[in-house]
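USER:
I would value a second opinion on how I read folds in token form. Give me a protein, with the fold worked out from its sequence. Write it directly below this note and I will take it from there.

ASSISTANT:
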Amino acid sequence: MDQAIGTMAGAILPAVLQITEQLAVTVGIAAAATVVGLMLFSWITRRFLIICPPNKLLVLSGRRRATEDGRSVGYRVVAGGRAWRVPVIETAGFMDMTTIPIYVAVQNAYSKNSIPLEVHAIANVKLASDPRIVMNAVERFLGRDRAEIQRVAKETLEGALRGTLARMTPEEVNEDRLKFAAEISDEVEEDLEKLGLQVDTLKIQSVSDEKEYLDSIGRVRIAEAIKRAEIAESNARNEANKEAANAKALGDVAQEQAQKAILQKQNELRRIRAELEAQAESEEKKAVAAGEAARATAEQELQRIRSELEQIRLQADVVIPWEAKKSQQEYEARAQAAPIAENGRAVGEALKLIADTWRAAGPDAKEIFLIQQLDQILADVAARLRHVAIDDVQVLDAGDGRALPRLVSGYPAMVAAVLEELRASTGVDVPAILGRRLEAAAGRAPAPAGGAR
């Protein structure tokens, strides 16, 4: 069996090796064909795929094609992007679409008023972006350099500039340069479209003339402006003088009115001050009169108190001792008339009666003794009141009318204060003693006729 297997393996192995060799050859051929295909595609792409930058125009010439307006042309235009060129049949060309600066200067170009002017301007021209117009540039400038395009555009702009100047006055050209540039652009637009070009910008740099016509216009206008400025300055100065005069007049009037107002206020202040002084003097006089009246009332009250005290003193010094002495004399007479044995008893009775009399007086005995000294006490009170001097009195009333009565009531209050000091220092209550004495005197006095009080 092993021999049979070895025989089979020996027969199969050469076939496998042969198949492997054929497969390797096939893979190598396929790889080589792929590489060759890629290289061929890359070469074809680089050769026939054309990339156009955005600032250039690609023109493929060779095959005829119909345009939008029905014309048949032998080229096609690509503005930026890419396009395939048909080998052998088409050729490729580029045109530059960047701007071309053109300096335009014309001399002795006559304006509308036949004044020769010299104008300098700068323009930026480029190929048109419109596909219909750019074909004109392709037909006229393909393969020509930028200098040729610049020359043609400059000559066209100079012609348009001279044509525009012929329709405008020097004043219009010099004063409104934007309008002048717009007129030139409108004038040259149609001509440039025929060339496949367009104007991006056009600026007028200067306008002058050899006859100094514009300078004379400027001098006249400057003179007019100076004249108007002088007139305006004179008018302004006159207006300022008028305003100053009016302001001064108004200021004088205002000052006079202010002086009048000040005088009025001063007069009113004097009047109010006089009224206040008169009122204060009147109140002062009233206060002085009230003080004098209060002092007189206090003196009268003091005299009344002196009279009452004098009556009480007389009663204590004369009446009571006289009554006691009378009783004593009666008892002495009885004693003298009685036997000698009765003398002692009579004397004892007399002494007892005297003792009973003083005992009956009770606390009044002490008061009676002190009342005998009231002359000196009241003299001292009057002396203290005489020392109170009132010169000027200013009364300030709170609006309730009580200030003056309070001032008048001060004098009796002073007497009461002095008597209160006497009571506090000696224990003698003069008003109380006088009250009790008066009540006692009223009790002993006979009733008036008719029982009327």
Q: What stands out?
A: The chain is about 70% helix and 15% strand. The longest strand covers residues 116-127. Confidence is low (pLDDT under 50) at residues 447-453.
